[in-house]
Design goal:
Layout (H helix, E strand, L loop, with lengths): L1 H23 L48 H13 L25 H10 L14 H11 L9 H14 L2 H5 L5 H11 L24 H12 L2
Helix pairs in contact: 2-8, 4-5
Amino acid sequence: MVRVWLALVLVVWAGSVRAELQSLFPRSDTAPDTVTRAGLFAPSGNVGFFAPLPERTQRIRVSPMASGTGTAPVDRLLSLIARAEAGSAGYDAVQYGATVRPAALPTHMTLGEIYQWIDDTPGQPHAIGRYQFIPPTLRRVARERGFGPETQFTPGVQDALALVLLEDAGFLRFQAGDLGRRQFMHNLARIWAGLPLPNGRSYYEGHAGNKATMSWAAFDGGMVRIWGG
């Protein structure tokens, strides 16, 4: 009788372990939208093998004052990131693997129109804008900013959305001197696949064809020029 009871306990335990492991690696039909080259944002929460960014101890909002083209440090950082993600296309960039492109330039579309384009064109990458937002990230940061579907995807809106991701990376702690530059850069590379790690490779190297589009020397040099050594 004891042996039978022990066998039942082991079966239940093994089943729970399998369920837990499966929750760490979801099926492909629930995986986040990925893209080739740049534009892969680390999704929110524990999804697949992408580790979450360190949790923020407090929810301090970064004011959406950056223009993305100004001379303030945050503007220059956004421009550095955009070099790796969007290149010359800037705010109207659409991931090159999208075979069915939006009907209008991204800056001329509302968020609702972008969501509709995403829904109408499954099976292709949808990274969009200067910071190459993928669908799960775009919806999340828009929700956090309080931007509804009627909001136009203007340069200012894109910058405001990108600032949420800078906050995710620890921007406020970095500015306060509580986070080292190297760790902050590592956090940024976990959000933007086009940015490199010190070895010159993307944090997502090889996943869905991703690779860094900027050298470590350019990334590190850019940070030094903005904030000094």
